Every structure is written in C-alpha cells, then in structure tokens.
UniProtKB/TrEMBL annotation, chain A:
Residues 256-286, 415-439 have a biased composition (Basic and acidic residues). InterPro entries: POLD3, POLD3_sf. This is DNA polymerase delta subunit 3. Gene3D superfamilies: DNA polymerase delta, p66 (Cdc27) subunit, wHTH domain (3.90.1030.20). Keywords: DNA replication, Nucleus. It comes from Notodromas monacha. GO terms for biological process: DNA strand elongation involved in DNA replication; DNA synthesis involved in UV-damage excision repair; nucleotide-excision repair, DNA gap filling. Pfam families: CDC27 (PF09507). GO terms for molecular function: DNA-directed DNA polymerase activity. The lineage of its organism: Eukaryota, Metazoa, Ecdysozoa, Arthropoda, Crustacea. Its main location: nucleus. Residues 449-460 have a biased composition (Polar residues).
Automatic annotation (TrEMBL), chain B:
Keywords: DNA replication, DNA-binding, Nucleus. It comes from the Eukaryota. GO terms for cellular component: PCNA complex. GO terms for biological process: leading strand elongation; mismatch repair; regulation of DNA replication; response to hydrogen peroxide; response to methyl methanesulfonate; translesion synthesis. This is DNA sliding clamp PCNA. It comes from Notodromas monacha.
Amino acid sequence: MTVTDDKLLKLEEFVYDVQRTITPRWLSHELGIPLIETNSLLKKFVKNEEKKARWKDVKVIFAVTGESKTSRSHFEVALATSEDVDKVKARFRNCAAEIYCLHPSHASVKPTASILNANQEHLSESVCDLGKYDTIRSKISKQPRTNDEVEELRKAAFKTSESLGFIKNQVASKPTKANSEKTVNKSTAVKNEEVAVTRSFSDPIQKKTSPTKKPTNPKNALSAMFSKQAEKNKTAPPKQASLPVEVEVTAEVKEEAISLPENKKSEDIPKPREAQKRKPTKDSKGSSKPPAKKKKEETKKTQRKRIIALLSDSEEESDDEANDKRLRADDEEVVTVQKPDLESSDEEEVVPSTPLPAKEPRPASGKHKVKQWVEKTFLDDEGFMVTEKVIEEIEIDEDGTEETERTSPIKPPTPKKEQKDEKEKENKENTKKNEEKSHGKGRPKKPVATSSGKQSSIMNFFSKAK
Amino acid sequence: MFEARLTQGSLLKKVMEAIRELLNEASFDCSENGIQLQAMDNSHVSLVSLNMGSEGFDKFRCDRNLTMGMNLASLSKILKCASNSDAITLKAQDDPDTVTFTFESENNERVSDYSMKLINLDQEHLGIPDTEYSCVVKMPSADFARICKDLSQFGDCITISCTKEGIKFSVAGDIGTGNVKLAQTANVDKESEAVTVEMQEPVSLTFACRYLNHFTKATPLSEQVQLSLSADVPLVVEYKIGEFGHIRYYLAPKIDEDD
C-alpha cells in the first residue's frame, strides 16, 4: 500500500466515519502534508469516490476565484457546490476552482481543533462565522438555519471548549481585549456593538474562571511569548531607554501585549468595567472638548508611557494646558520609576549580545556615564598573570573626575592574531604528544578497536617518493 | 613507441571496473616491465596500486618509459565498447597526446579502434615501504565482498579482528550490531575456498565500510583475496590479476579520537 493510498484511506475515514467537514488546510495540518499535495489528494479522492453510492451524502464545495466579468478591477472569490460550479465559473474571467471543503451531509458544525487552539480573537471570529457555515449549509440543503439553531450551536461550541478546559482563560481575558478594542475603535459604533456581542458570550464563562489564573495552553506559544515580553516590560523597563528606536519597538510590543489575553494579570491595564467607570470621570473633566481632542487624549492615555519614553524635552506641547500638566506629572512619575530600575538592571550585570561601542555618553544633566574598554591584570587559578580587556562603566562629572561604577564580565573579542597563535600552540602540543607516543614507548600490542574513530589519511603512513 | 596486446581483454575491463569508482583520473606508467598505476582516492584515505607485468601480455613493447594520464570515466566508456572475448591492444607514441585502443574479436572479423586524449596529471607517487604484517589472511574474495556488503548496512565502520582462531568482522550501528567470524578452514578441495590466517600477533583495526566496498569491485579479478593487517598501519587488500599482476588497495585505519 502506497503512502497516497494510506492518506486516501484516512480521508475516507474522516469523511464517512467521522463525518466531518474537511478543508484542505485542516487536512494538510492533520496529515502533515503540504497544502498543494492536499489539494491534489482531495481531487483524487473526489474522483475516486464520485461514482460510489455513499458519495451522495457528501457535498463538495468549490472556491472559485477569478476576475469578475461585471467589474474589471475586482478579483472575487465565490463558493459553489459541485452542481453550481459551472454556473459560477461563467461569471468569472480567468477563473480557477479549487476544492474548498468536503461536507458530509451529517457533519455537525462544531468548533474544530483549529478553533479550539486559536486565541480568543479567532474563537470569537469562528463562533461569529457560524453564519458562514450557514450559507454553505443553505446552499447544500436549501434549509437555512434559524437564529435559535445558530445560538444553540454557539453555546455548544463554548460548552465543548469549556469542557476541554483551555478556553477559560482566553475567554476570561477577553474583556482586556475588548477594552483595547474599545479604546482604539471607540469612534465606530458598529464595532462597539460587536465587542458587546462577544462579551455577552464570554460573560458566563468569565464568572467561572478566576481572573488571576494564567493561561496554560501550550500551543499558544506566540501569545505566551508576548506575555513574557509584556511582563518584562512591566517589571524592568528597557535599559536603553534613551535610544528612541528601541523604545519604540518595546512600546509597540507592549501595545500588542495589551491586546493579548495573557496580560489580563497586569495591573497597568484596567479591567473593562473599571475602564468604563473611569471614562466618565475623565470625560467629565474635559467634557467641553471636541470629540477629536477626546480621541487624541484617549490614545495618549493608552500610550502615554511610550510617548514619555519616545519624546524628549522638546516634545511638542499639547493644546490644552491642563492636559499638558497632567502629562508632565505622569512624566515625572515614570522617570522616578525608571531610574532605579536602570540601576538595578546594572546590578544584575546583563550581558549584551553584541559588544557595546567604546563610549556611550548618556544625556544626564550633571554626570555622564561612559563605557570604556579597560585592561585589567590579575592572577588566575594557575598562578599566571592574565591581562584582559573588560568593559567598565565610568561616571564622569562635568569637572572631569571619574568614578567607576561596575565592571562587566564581557571579554573583548580576541584579535585574529591571538587566535591564530592559540591554534598554533594547540597544534604544536598535539604533534608533540603524537611524537612522544610514536617514538617513546613503542606501539601497544593490542590496539583498542574503536567503532567510530577519526579517519586518518593514507599520507600519514606513506612518504612521498622522490 | 608503446604497444601492448592483451588477448584476454576482459581482464583489462575488470581492472577498469575495480578502480573506476575509487579514482577519477590516474596515470598509467608504462615501462619495459609492464604497466603500473598508483593513485590515491580524492580524500587521500585509500591508495590503489596496480601492477600488470609485461609477461602477461601477448605482445609488449615499450621503447621509452612514459606516463599516460587518463580520465577513467572516458577509459571506462571506451572499454565498454569491447566484448569480453576481444583482444585489446594499446598503442601510443613516445611522447603521446593520445592513446589508441584496438579491439579485435576472436576470429578477427571485427576490429574497432578508439583513441582517447591523454591528460597531464601531476600526481605524487608515494613510497610504500615493505612491511611485515602481523596478520595475513587469505579468504575467498566473494566471501569478503559479501561480508563487507552485509555489514555496511549496520554502520559506517567495520572492525577487523584477527586472532589465531580466525578473523572476525564486526560492526555496530544505530539498528544494532553485526559480527561475522571466519575460522581457519582445515580441509578444502579448492585452495581458493580456504580461509588461512598467518599471524604473528593479534590485531584489531577499524576501517571505513565505504572504501572496503569499493575494493570489493575487484572481486571478479580473483577468486581469492589477501588481507594484510598490522597495528597502526594501512590495511592491504590484494587481488591477483591472473598470473602476471596484482591490484593492491591500501586503506588507512580509523584512529581512536583520544589519540
């Protein structure tokens, strides 16, 4: 039995026994084969099965892509059953039809593994997209689902995911995301409605979950990574805060992290209801402002730390004096928080991945911190004098006096010459050893048999003939 | 002028097959004594030494010593054009640019000739000292080929251990281990089927399977193979070419990394 036959058998099992809707992407994931191969596999499967009696229960949905004949500029995608595919194709110019999914008529629309494994955003989308399934279903069976059916399905989806025990945290953390969405898209009322809808789904589950519980889904590695980044940002702000580019990056990461459910724990991010409570108070302060300004304020509020880090003293002043004052007050707060962190990070002796430039002046008012390569000589364990170049951070006052703060353990990159010398030494030692072995004590009578030794060259045994 | 005629053309074809996989190019040294070849493989792990004495040829004439550098792939192509029963004649001028091969069928009904361009090769010759080996094993060449082929499935290295009882080939790999022991045969009808061990001291050496398998391509040349082993010295695998020559393969052993 060939590999393809094996895969076809599996596919047969999925369609007839498991009775699930099969998309090429899912199948590719399930069988661990490339998507192109999956498409051809599906085609082959359909071709093989078309004539069989049991095939009548399975519908093939095609995705027809191409340029619409009605409008030239548009590239459209349409879904069609095998019966309608020719009709749909007629609507297109330069079209291609690929199998979108195989749909057994008894297949239940349940959250697939991909939905279960997806993050909250995907989940909400998938659940909301039950309507899409509806369209497909209606094309197949000509019996559109009622709203009640869809609602039941949504509930079932949440129940199954809840029973699997992973979704709790994601759903519980949903309000954070919703909040972030709110802050960003507050102006659009429609999107707010969407958020409200999704929250209405998540609320009952939120009651069951403890807000402090950390998500334990190991598959959500990307989000976990972001959460780690966010925690880093929270506990230790970036060391090189004076560098605008890097700060921008970290700030962006932070912004992204806020949108992720894992950051629910962070105290900096207000909970949705708290946020809702806060907003009116702030709004009440600046109630006389136009809505555009309000929006600006909102964005500044969410990103104020980044702005603080980004902009220097020459930051453009805002229009409103009151706001300006408040921002400056925040500014001061952040600076007072960040400074000790910098020092503490210094104490931790964080080793930078790349060697730092020789001098790195810092824009401090009275003192300048400068990193310098300094030669240090000391006795090592074997009693040899060792001279090493190390990075020292020196604080220089304006009057020129120096004060050494710390010595980093970074060794300077050894020059090529030194490396060469070391290699030569090693080689010499090795050759000496070999000579001693060959000349000194004679050959061992029984050489030890090795299963995988080093392959020697024939040149080592035979000398060149003249 | 160089001219050498070999009635048993198949011998030359077999010699070619025996070295073709190991070498890409080689210099054939022609002298009044015969044709010699010495060349290392590309990785300088093994060495091939071929000697075909002039007495083995029907007609042998070599006015001046000459070296003919040949591309073995090209030579192989030409020799494939010869039938096993053909007589092969090599001809070259004293300072040759080309060498001519003439193939004559048994009844001289068909004569074909091919000329091949020679190449300049700057190959170093190694002085191979006369060594008294601790162990000299003679065994059927087909058995040796079979053992090497079988054991190379298990791992990259074969350990050849020789004691007075016999010779043991062992291999260890990911899937497991393999051992083949050959005891000295007491009574055999044919001398070529016997396994004989001449031993001064026991030896155990490890060699790369890949090269051993290349060496076994010379199996059609001779029914018997001779393995000569000494500690810390290359293995010699020798096949006789009729009564007038031999092909010897030298293979450097694998050395323990601790050394």
